[in-house]
Each structure stands twice: as structure tokens, then as C-alpha cells.
Design a protein that fits this description.
Elements: H1 29-49, H2 54-65, H3 71-100, H4 107-113, H5 118-130, H6 133-139, H7 154-173, H8 178-191, E1 197-199, H9 203-206, E2 214-221, E3 226-233, H10 236-263, H11 266-270, H12 274-281
Antiparallel strand pairs: 1-2, 2-3
Helix pairs in contact: 1-10, 2-3, 2-10, 3-4, 3-8, 3-10, 5-8, 7-10
């Protein structure tokens, strides 16, 4: 019996697929990318209408709960709001990266494969400061807001124009959150994951306490043989700024995803935007 007979076969092309269970329906890499491109439009449409709101809903729920919370619970709620800011910011950076790499990689794959790092965060905010809003739109395959769209119904065309105008306004505001973003997102890889301890005080660890308006997270750095303590402000003014940033990031992601999905047809998505790139190059 040949070794190939024991390997699962791609359900689309019939080629053997390495590293998969024999009783599983599988796709090879190329066929999987083709499948992802076939659902990329739906992925963006659903993300814009539903998925993008998840961070905002949780953060706003925590903000309302702060009113009746005791001091310890306020710190936990504040930390949860920071987690939603990190999630909303990461989603926006993942979306921008996915749209930029749309020719070489399916959008859904690039979005879900995205990994946050301090370098990626710094580059994102640097691009937002360096590029004009229209230039940044062009990098993700979107036109200036004043562009006419005769192929779209009037209402849809107006919605796209409104969305792109909101994108420009919100891109201008990103610089307001650069310091907050680079600090919070720089800590995210080590301090916002399983195995990290939220701390309402640090006397037991550091010999000195954080302020009543701070919450800490404690992460282990085994390579350096130490515990790292990161303190974040959870006073009312700071949390209002974080909520405002979540609103901006959420609106940016929603409008970018909606405009892109609306302005590109199914053939663009399934064809990997090669024809679109050729037209623009010409």
C-alpha cells in the first residue's frame, strides 16, 4: 500500500494533504486560499455590520457598570476597557494590513493571521502621521470621498461617500491616541493574555503600591528571571479617553470594511484583485 493512500486528499483538487487527520475533510493550501477569496466579501460585510461592534459593546457595558462598582471592581472594569481598546486597535491594524496585502494573500487569512508587536504598532501610527488621509485610503484600495460611483444606487453611493469622509476625519484623530496606543499596545503582547495576573495593589510584590487610580498587570519574564509589573491609569478622565479611542478605531474599521466591500465586486475578490491592480497601473 502506498503512503499516499493513507494521506487525506484535498476535497477540491484531490491532491494529498500533509499533516491532516485521515478522517477529516481538508483542503490543500492553494484550494484553501481560493475558498477564502470566495468568502472575503462576505467576511468584510459581516465584520462591518456585526463583528466590529464587539469591542465597543463590551467597553460601553463596563463603563456603565463603573457607576455602581466598588473601588476594586472599578479597577477590574477599567482593565477590561483597556483590553477592548487593544482589541479594537489590533483589529484596525489587522484590517489595514489585510487590505494592503489583498493581491498576495486572501483578506480573511491576513486579518486572522495578524500578530501584534511594538514594531507593527509604531509603524502603523507613524504611517497615520506621515500619510494624508487620501494617501492612506489609496494604500488600501479605496478612492477619495468625492469620487463618483455611477454603478451604485444613489443611496449606496451616498453611504460610501459618507463612510469615506468619516474615515478621513477619524484618521486625522489617530494622532490624539498615539501615546496611549503605543504604550498600551506595546504592553499587550506580554500583559494581555492568559497567565497574566491583574493586580489592584502591588505592595506584596514591589514593596510599594500603585495609586488608587491605577490597576496593574503582572507578567512573568522567565528569560530574565523576573516579574514585570505594568500600571495603567483607570481614573475617569483616562477611561473616557480610552472609550473615545475605541469609538474611533471601531468606526474606522467599520467604514473601511464597508466601503471596500461595497466598491469591489465578486470578481475582484475571487480574482485576487489582479485585474483591479492592472487597471490602476495602466
Amino acid at each position: 500500500m502506498s503512503s499516499n493512500s493513507l494521506q487525506p486528499l484535498c476535497l477540491n483538487c484531490g491532491q494529498p494533504v500533509e499533516g491532516a487527520g485521515r478522517n477529516q475533510a481538508v483542503r490543500c493550501g492553494d484550494c484553501f486560499d481560493g475558498f477564502l477569496r470566495s468568502v472575503d466579501a462576505g467576511f468584510l460585510e459581516h465584520y462591518a455590520s456585526f463583528g466590529v461592534r464587539s469591542r465597543q459593546v463590551i467597553a460601553e457595558t463596563c463603563l456603565r457598570a463603573l457607576v455602581l462598582a466598588n473601588p476594586a471592581d472599578r479597577k477590574i472594569l477599567g482593565l477590561t476597557i483597556y483590553e477592548q481598546f487593544i482589541g479594537a486597535s489590533t483589529d484596525l491594524m489587522a484590517l489595514v494590513a489585510a487590505l494592503r496585502s489583498r493581491v498576495s494573500v486572501p483578506i480573511a487569512r491576513a486579518f486572522m493571521d495578524f500578530r501584534l508587536s511594538p514594531e507593527v504598532t509604531a509603524r502603523f501610527f507613524a504611517d497615520a502621521a506621515r500619510l494624508s488621509g487620501v494617501e492612506l485610503l489609496a494604500t488600501v484600495g479605496l478612492p477619495p470621498p468625492e469620487t463618483r460611483h455611477p454603478s451604485l444606487p444613489d443611496k449606496v453611493g451616498k453611504d460610501v461617500t459618507r463612510s469615506l469622509r468619516e474615515v478621513l476625519a477619524d484618521l486625522h484623530r489617530l494622532n490624539e491616541f498615539r501615546e496611549l496606543g503605543e504604550r498600551a499596545l506595546g504592553l499587550a503582547a506580554a500583559h494581555f493574555r492568559a497567565g497574566v495576573l491583574p493586580a489592584g495593589d502591588t505592595r506584596w510584590l514591589a514593596g510599594r503600591d500603585i495609586s488608587p487610580a491605577q490597576v496593574a498587570s503582572v507578567a512573568m519574564d522567565a528569560r530574565r528571571g523576573r516579574l514585570e509589573v505594568a500600571a495603567l491609569r483607570v481614573d475617569e478622565a483616562r477611561l473616557e479617553q480610552v472609550i473615545d479611542a475605541i469609538d474611533v478605531m471601531t468606526r474606522l474599521s467599520r467604514n473601511l470594511a464597508y466601503a471596500f466591500a461595497t466598491l469591489h465586486d465578486d470578481a475582484d475578490f475571487t480574482g485576487g484583485f489582479v485585474a483591479v491592480k492592472r487597471v490602476h497601473a495602466g
